[in-house]
Amino acid sequence: MEISVTSIVFSFVFAALLASVWSFLDWIWLKPKKLEMLLRQQGFSGNSYKLLHGDTKEMFMVSKQAKIRPINPISHDIAQRIIPFHHRIITNYGKNSFIWLGPTPSINITDPKLIREIMLRYEIFQKPKRSPLGKLVFNGMLMYEGEQWFRVRKTANPAFHLDKLKVFLLSILQYS
Description:
Blueprint: H1 5-41, E1 45-46, H2 56-68, H3 79-82, H4 84-93, E2 96-101, E3 104-109, H5 112-120, H6 132-137, H7 146-156, H8 162-175
Parallel strand pairs: 1-2
Antiparallel strand pairs: 2-3
């Protein structure tokens, strides 16, 4: 049996095509479903993953409805107007929930003890990698990683002590 050059090229092209289809399928369906299962095992709840768009369609719809609704002048609860989708998710699924931004889950954590643990253990809870455009647009303490984050946090922490905040608030009220 003789192997021709065209059959070798065809098999390489087929293998490359098969690998790209598999990686696309993994990115768009298998990985999000696995992440959803892991999040549910850890006690988080939220909407099921929807192919490609996740919760973004519902998020835009709820935001549009919130802008149409009039503001209640008596109530100070503005979360329904400012972040209506997050408010709805937290109301429906609890304080530890998740939403889907495309094929990527975003976790809502409102428990102060858990937030403190996450902020103190920066080596365990890694932030997702940012795109080059994201690095240009978003910068600051929330985007730093590792030792850089720890140094900036250590520098900024004394500014948020209660005594300093009181002095700052009094100076603002005095000049108003």
